Each structure stands twice: as C-alpha cells, then as structure tokens.
Amino acid sequence: MKKYTQLTQEERETLYIMRKQGQTYRNIAIFLGRDHSALVREYHRNHKSMELGYLPDTAHQLAQERKAHHGRKIDRYPQLKDTVIKLMQEDRYSPEIISGRLKEQGEEVTLSHETIYQFIYSKTGRKQQLYKYLMRSRPKRNQYYGRKTRSNYGIPGRVSIKERPILNSKDFGNFEADLTFFTGDKSINLSTMVDRKTGYLVANLNDSKHSDNIASKMMHNIMLFPRKHRRSITFDNGKEFVGHQLIKKVTGIPTYFCNPGSPWQKPYVETTHALLHRFIPKKTDAKTLTQETVNNAITKLNNLPRKRHGFKTPAEMLAKEKIYLLGALRA
Fold first, then answer.
1. Digit-coded pLDDT (tens) for 196-253
2. What CA–CA distance (Å, rounded) separates 285 from 69?
3. pLDDT per residue as tens digits for the range 60-71
4. What's the pLDDT tens digit per position in 261-305?
5. Rounded to the nearest 5 degrees, what angle is found at the Cα of 271, between the Cα atoms of 266 and 277?
6. 109 contact partners, CB below 8 Å, separation of at least 6
7. Exposure of 259 in the CB half-sphere (CA atoms within 13 A)
8. DSSP state of 22
9. Gap between the Cα atoms of 12 and 140, Å rounded
C-alpha cells in the first residue's frame, strides 16, 4: 500500500490550473496519481473566499502553517523520542543509523535522519547536550575543519598504492591499517585493521609505536584470518610501518602505501577511527586504557549498523562470508 504524502506546491498548482480548465476531481486525481477525495478536501479546505477562490500559493502556505502547528513529529511520539535518545547515549547510534534501523525493522512510525538532527539541535536537544553523542560532537552544525598533510617517506620496500591491483568490492580480505592516539602519552596507541568489504575491525592496544611492536601486533591480527583471505593491506606513510616487509614475509599478504597526505585513499579505516572514538573518546587519558576496554569498544563497533550495508552490522556481514576466524573474535 502506497504511503500517503502531503501535496506538493507543484501538485497544488496543477490542481488550480486543471480546475480552471473545467477538469473533474477524478480526472485530476488520475493525472496526479492521487485519491480524488484527497483533492476535494484540499480544494475546499484551502478555498480562501468566494471572490478569490482556490489559490495554490496561499493553499501551500496554509498547509505548512498547519503542519508547523502540530510541532515536530518526534515530539508527538514520546516513546519514540526516548528510544532515539537511548540509542544515541547508550549504543552511540548516529541519526542516519537510527533512521535506517527503524525502517529496516519495519517500525510503524519512523523518522528521517534530518528530523533527528533538528531535534538534537533544538532547544530541548541542546539542553540535554545530545550533540555530544554525535561523531564530531559539535554544538553547532556545519562547522568544518581542515587537517594537516603528511609527507613521510623513507620506508624500505615501499610499494605505492598506484601499483595496487584494482580491488574487487566483492572480495573479503583487502584491509586498511593505521594507528590512532589519545590524550596524554603519545606512545600509547591502537593499531587498527579494517576489512574494506565488511567494515569488520580488529585492533590492539600498544604501549609504544615502535615499528617492531606494531609489526608484531599487525601480524597477529592478520593471521586471525585464513591465508586465502589475506589479499592486501594498505598503510599510510608513518615510520611505524617500516616493518611491513616482515609482515608480508610472515603472513603472505601484499602491502601497499597511500600517497602522502591522502587519507581518502584508505577511507574505511579513517571512518572507523571516527566511529571508534565515539566509544573511546580522543580525550581519554591513554594511560587509563586497557585491552579489555578496547575489546568492549570493538565489539560495540562491529555490532553498529552501517548505512552502506543496508543498516546491517559488520559482524552480520562477516557472518555471511562464512569465514572461520582463529580465536574468539566473533562478536
């Protein structure tokens, strides 16, 4: 059954013109693909006066005023509002994920992500500081900041991403890897590795960014996956990845490097870091972190629905691959 939507201003103009031409409501309804009774109600409800008759611009303005009088949709459904707040605060769902999940689950009442954003930045939302649960935690919308570029070379055996074969989006096992840091001790970091197809993340807490330590942790992560699914791994040009040749030798995975200052060439791990910091904020004191804390965050992240997967989770996407992982990795 087709879901009812309000008439657009263009439809109101068509109704006005065709009525002036003497067309019946039924003929106009067939032309617009609308129910004729809805057009009858529209015409008489917004009939300004006997002298002026039906005016499309005035009718549209009156309809918008009535809509505004009803208030925001989310305010008319308190239980739904509570659900949105809970999903943001406890599960760190973004507005897009909440909207998509509601539709995917076939809920009777759904919300667009824009409606949720408007609620977040409304007087009520600001009072509850809901913006703090967004990925970038900005108190105002549409504030963008640049980032400094990097130009680190001097990596023995470095193979440019330009030489990487074209990746098949249907193949599991093309990974992107990086480090992410927190407040305080800049030696402490997380080494992360994300599969491009599923978005599945594995990560380790490191007490230093020494290349030998990073290579060891990366090898451990890669070897959790069967050899036939170790297709490629792409790094940035940080000196912490100079041990990539050892990784390649031990695990058999080809290694590639982005162009300096081109984080967009490994978009999945960049996006994953932004999501990860919703569960472990950047401002976290690195010295207070434990691997257990990291594992809990990874589990939540791998069970966070993604828009690109039709709001399925990376864990669900991995399960579809039917890949046996060594160790208790599944979430």
1. 999 999 999 999 989 999 999 999 999 999 999 999 999 999 889 999 999 999 999 9
2. 47
3. 777 766 665 556
4. 777 789 999 999 999 999 999 899 988 999 999 999 999 999 999
5. 130
6. 73, 77, 80, 102
7. 5
8. T
9. 36
Question: Amino acid letter at 114?
Answer: E
Residue with tokens 């009718």: 59
Token representation of residue 26? 């039924």
Q: What is the CB-side half-sphere exposure of residue 315 using CA atoms within 13 A?
A: 12
Residue 26 and residue 36 in contact, taking contact as beta carbons nearer than 8 Å = yes
The rounded percent of the chain whose pLDDT value lies above 70 is 89
> Within the chain, what is the greatest distance between any pair of CA atoms?
87
Rounded distance between C-alpha atoms, residue 317 and residue 306, angstroms? 10
Q: 3-class secondary structure for 254-268?
A: CEEECCCCCHHHCHH
The pTM (predicted TM-score) of the whole model is 0.61
| Token pair belonging to 285 | 């004191």
DSSP 219-278: HHHHTTS-GGG--EEEE-S-GGGTTHHHHHHHH---EEEPPTT-GGGSHHHHHHHHHHHH
* Nearby residues of 84 by Cβ (< 8 Å), 6 or more positions away: 74, 98, 111, 116, 119
Residue 98's contacts (CB-CB under 8 Å, 6 or more residues apart) are 84, 87, 88, 111, 113, 116
Q: How many CA atoms lie within 13 A of 56 on its CB side?
A: 15
Cβ–Cβ contacts within 10 Å for residue 223, how many? 17
Distances (CA, A) of 199 to 36, 123, 225: 48, 35, 14
The class of domain 161-321 in CATH terms is alpha beta
Inter-residue contact 192 to 272 (CB < 8 Å): yes
What's the pLDDT tens digit per position in 108-129?
Answer: 888 888 889 888 988 888 888 9
Could you identify the residue written with the tokens 């160790």? 327
Q: What order of strands is seen across the sheet that includes strand 255-257? A: 201-206, 189-195, 174-181, 232-235, 255-257
